[in-house]
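Form 7-S
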Amino acid sequence: MIDSNHMGMGNLVQEEEMVSTQDRRRLVLFDVDGTILNSGGAGRRAIKRALIEVFGTTGSADSFPFAGKTDPQIILELMTGEGLPEELIRRKLGTFFKVYIRNLEEEIPVARKQLYPGVRELLSNLSDMAQTILGLLTGNIREGAEIKLKAFDLNNYFQIGAYGDDSEDRYKLPQIAISRTAEKFGRSFWGKEVVIVGDTPHDINCGKAVEAKSVAVATGWTSLDELKNHKPDYIFEDFSDYEKVIEAILA
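Output:
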């Protein structure tokens, strides 16, 4: 015979667990370059080749800091630095990115690329959790991000994204990602329910306007000490101890 009182308690426990899971829902937005992977210079080489073909010069692309910037921002800053009119640059951006994508598809297979420690385990475990939605928040244009992630078979982990071709201003991307998530899943995320994971001060700072939680990692081109100066909520040397990273994301 089934004990109805016991069954009721079981239902209550299940309901409490469901509420607890809902309370801990997280929209986790990952940067790509320097956070998930190192493309082995493929992106910079693809950009330089496209700059030569479309604008006739690479400008200072060899030394120009790409980290934390959107792809359109990089091209605009490089080419205005060479004295080209902004209106001309913007008019040619569509052509530029078609050439860039063609180049990137050629460069990625032969690049000495690297997936950073613990990343696959981190993404796999987070994607299996009912309370997490994984997305991208990256300065890459969408197609460029997908090409880089495809090299490591990672695209299927991400359900949403905001990219450099959504806005050249990285600081507008968190709200774009949040809005897209609400449209797709019918659920709004606010404040610390949003977690931005990245390797630069821009990743830390761009979430402050939406009061997001920041998880910084020093696998990119910014030192651990410099990242600490920007006061992320959590910081890691890398994601080798992915269980600790998951604890930080869900905290």
